Amino acid sequence: RLFPQLGLTEEGLQAYLSFLRGSVAAVAREEFDGLSTALARADSGAAPFVETLTNLLRAVAVAVEENTPVVREHFGGLAPRELVRELQKECDIRGTLVLQRFVEHRRLAALARRARRGGGEGDSAGGDAVDPREVESFLEEMLLLGQRVEEFSGFMVAQLRAAHADEVLPPATLASFRGGDLSQKEQEILMYYVQLEEYFMSTNMRKAIDIDETPPEALTSSMVDDVFFILQKCTHRAVSSRNVQCACAGMNHVGALLGNEYREAISAKLDAAMLRAEQAARVAQRGSGDEGGAAAKTGEALPQAVAVALNNADVSADYIQRLFGVLDEACASYYPSTADRERMRTVLADMTAAEQALRALSASALERAREVALAHAPIKASLAAAAACDYVLSEERYATNERSDPWALPLAAALEAALTPMADSLTQTNYDGVLLSLAERVAALLEGYILGKRFNQLGGLQLDREIRTVVQALSALAGGAPLRERFARVSQIATVLNLERVAEIIDYWGDNAGAITWRLSPQEIKRVLALRKDFSEHSIQALQL
Fold it and tell me: pTM value?
């Protein structure tokens, strides 16, 4: 208080700031000595680096908060700026010592170097392996240290802005403040964090893939839940760091892992299961070999290994979508800046690409699964009977077929027997996909058979009944899936073949169509009508459709 009265305001301010820096230095030395004592003990695994840094930063923050009104009152309105700058300098010195000691004690440089070399299973024989469990404990510690520095820096910047209340804080001042030794050392630690977090993610994901197994009655194998547990844990940790670079690096690595290694693992397991099923189906068709005999005995239209592989791809795509949503919400919570969120959304786009790649893989695999199911002996035999069926019928033959359905009821039963177990072994999405794909393929095969035959009216009547039988059976299995759409064309073909006379089509066409949405063109309708041997070509060509 005497300095301003003597006209030595600047000298007084510097003396007071020197006293405050000395007080902070004393607290820092005491904390650092306590840290050194803890590190000297045999068990220093739980060394209080975070506590030490927190106590130091708290001491500086309290000194700034308590002394801002004091220096403003005695040394003028600009004094709080000097207060913040001087105490930040002391904090840069003392805080950097703590962080440097942490880097050295945890041997982060060597650890990151070994991780970059892939110091996992490949180096284990040489004793240079990096244990992911050891890395994880360091990851939490590094992030806590980074968070403390970020929170402290935010507080100090706010104090600096308040000290410049009547003017804009110069960018150079802010850049200089953010570029101090403490911030630089924090960035170094976070650089190590990113490298080790990526190693932790990659190593644990590969391990989950390597030890993959399918528990009894499980829809998916173990690697799906294991991998996404790891990735969600790591990305949440990165986002909660409140550091944009860490968050983006973590999410970017997850996107890369999902879009490359994980997708390749899903694809490889799917291909292997499909190849075994396709080979077994071919052997079963020849009726020889142990594998073919076993497949025939189990009666499985879709082996369990294929079902699990399909489910892995489907559930993984859903998990990516869910992970995207969780991370997007977390980013909004931790990073209010619009620019930061846009940057993160750009990074998250890689996850969307990985999801789309898995869904495309699923769609392709479902087509292969459909062909495996179609090769199932009862289905194949029923379709062969449909291909051989005659539709120029006498009344006697029509009555016989009515009593003993030549192919529609056997096909409906075969499809039901094949699809019913799939309802328990596949996810709902996959079950609907297989069912609809199978229905679409069956409808296309039937249409091909029909267009190669000749009909009379009784034959058309029988076909209409047969198509209805198959559609009703599959509809009962489809739940809410749009199955009838798959049979729209072949059902309309059956309707046309069931007409009593050519001109009757006019009652169902154009303005008379009512609720019918025709999937057949006028040319196709005439082609179908021409299959009726009792319809004259002249009457068909005379139709105005």
Answer: 0.84
